[in-house]
Amino acid sequence: TILVDNMLIKGTAGGPDPSIELSLKDNVDYWVILDPISQRLYLNSTGRILDRDPPMSIQSIVVQVQCVNKKVGTIINHEVRIVVRDRNDNSPRFQQQRYHVAVNE
Ligand SMILES: *[C@@H]1O[C@H](CO)[C@@H](O)[C@H](O)[C@H]1NC(C)=O
After folding, report:
1. CA atoms within 13 Å, Cβ hemisphere of 37
2. pLDDT value for 55
3. Which of 6, 36, 52, 55 has fewest C-beta within 10 Å?
C-alpha cells in the first residue's frame, strides 16, 4: 500500500550524481518502507495486519524522513504522521437466534 506517492522533497536521491540522501528514522516496528528514488512511502504489512482495534490498537504511525543535502551537508527531518482511521470491519454478532418485539400501530 502506498502511503505517500511523492514527498516532493527538492533534489534527487540515487542516480550517478545524487544531491540528497533520504532515510527513515524512528520507524518503530518497521511499519514504513521508503523508496528514496521515487520519494515514495509504503506501508509494510508483510506478515501482519495493521489494526486500530485491540489488541494492536495502532491509531497512528509517526516516522521521520531524514534528508541530507549532500552538497552542503545540511540535515532536515520531515515528520510524517499516518493516522489509522476506524473502519467497521467486524461482522455483527447476535446473542439470540431470534428476537421478538411488539410495536404499536
Ligand atoms: C517489514 O516488517 C517486518 C516485521 O513484520 C520486518 O521483519 C521487515 O524487515 C520489514 N521490511 C522492511 C523492508 O522494512
Report:
1. 4
2. 92
3. 55
Task: Give pLDDT tens digits for 48-100.
Answer: 999 999 999 999 999 999 999 999 999 999 999 999 999 888 898 999 999 99
The Cα 97–Cα 95 span in angstroms is 7
Residue 87: per-residue pLDDT: 87
Q: How far is CA 1 from the centre of its chain?
A: 9
| CB 92 near ligand 1, within 6 Å | no
Say yes or no: CB of residue 15 within 6 Å of ligand 1.
no
User: From the CB of 24, is ligand 1 less than 6 Å away?
Assistant: no
Q: Is the dihedral of CA 6, 7, 11, 12 positive or negative?
A: negative
What are the DSSP calls for 11-63, one per residue?
S--SSSS-SEEEEEES-GGG-EEEETTTTEEEE--TTS---SSTTT---EEEE
The average pLDDT across 21-48 equals 97
Grid look-up 533534489 returns 11
